[in-house]
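WARN retry 2 of 3 for item q-0093 after timeout on previous attempt; input resubmitted unchanged.
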Amino acid sequence: MRGPYSVGTELSPDGRYLLIADRRVLDLTTGRTRQVLPPRPRAQAAGAWSADGTRIIYVDDRRTTVVSWPSLTVEASFPHPDHVPVEQDVALSADRTM
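OK item q-0093 returned
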């Protein structure tokens, strides 16, 4: 469930995976974690799943990055023109464009 706040974790649409701190994904069936992107100490980053669970979008104070799941291929990465608060909701469009 999404609300007007972020607790740093988000469940995948199929309920199997959990986005956790340091840009990792926890497999809830095996207990194993995968590093999605290199960790950035002291940088706040918020992650979100696409509606179909095939992408993860990360937003931090300098950059937005879209990663394919489970291949971990970076599909797009772009800097923000100005500071964008991490708490701000981000999402991918339903037609899979950015």
